[in-house]
């Protein structure tokens, strides 16, 4: 399931994202007249709670209203619709990402910490991975997260033209690595079959249904044989273990590439 940001009314959505004065749902509580029974913040929090617990597919104005003990219609005074709510939810959870990385040990150490924190963030809120990057939300916390990453990358002293592409490389790498784990967890929850059970049921059949598998795919066999690193300390489902190792090794390779680019620039 892919969700595209920015599908609602542009002006109302951007006003809510940036809490522009006079935007719907941003009325001060201390003014004359009865205080509003709901708030944009409460609706956003409820939406995040629904998505965290049940996934993006379960998110609806009705589900959010039920969590708040209200009808869906009661929410529309504050948030125009689900499209705008997704934008607000996405930007709000982005506020969880740290922005105080210490560059004293060097940019590589800081970027490693950034990648670890971002990986953990995506696994706390896997529904975020379903919000397409093709059209960004353009909210304040999203921009703050980007500003944080740029601060770390500019410490490499690479030029802006290169860093513009490095940003995309890092973000896509971490998102992709986390998405593998998120989808594996979703598959297990949706089907009732664990990753280990699924692999055991099928991988053992390969030699039965494809007797010449080794001859047809020799390089795959070589990689699996020579590259296997079994450990008694390995814990958790197979796909998650492999995704974590891929994340660690892949991140090191990406950072090595940045170091090589820095060396060439000098």
Overview of the molecule:
62% of the residues lie in helices and 0% in strands. It is mostly helical. It folds into two domains: 10-94, Arc Repressor Mutant, subunit A; 107-265, Tetracycline Repressor, domain 2 (Orthogonal Bundle), CATH 1.10.357.10. Helix 2 packs across helix 4, helix 4 (82-94) runs parallel beside helix 6 (140-154) and helix 7 packs antiparallel against helix 11 (238-265). The chain is flat and about 65 Å long. The relative contact order is 0.10.
Helices, strands, pairings?
Blueprint lengths: L9 H8 L22 H15 L6 H8 L13 H13 L12 H18 L15 H15 L5 H32 L3 H15 L3 H4 L1 H10 L10 H28 L1
CATH uppermost class of the largest domain: Mainly Alpha
CATH topology-level fold name of the largest domain: Tetracycline Repressor, domain 2
Quick one: overall form?
flat
The CATH architecture of the largest domain can be given as Orthogonal Bundle
Number of strand segments: 0
Our estimate of the beta-strand percent is under 5%
Low-confidence stretches: 25-30
How far is it from the N-terminal to the C-terminal residue, by CA? 44 Å
The quaternary structure here is single chain
Percent in helix: 55-70%
Q: How many domains is the backbone divided into?
A: 2
Largest sheet: none
Give me the Rg, rounded.
23 Å
Structural class: mainly alpha
- Overall pLDDT confidence: 90
Write out the CATH superfamily name of the largest domain.
Tetracycline Repressor, domain 2
In short:
This protein is an all-alpha fold and 266 residues long. It has 11 helices and no strands. The two termini are 44 Å apart.
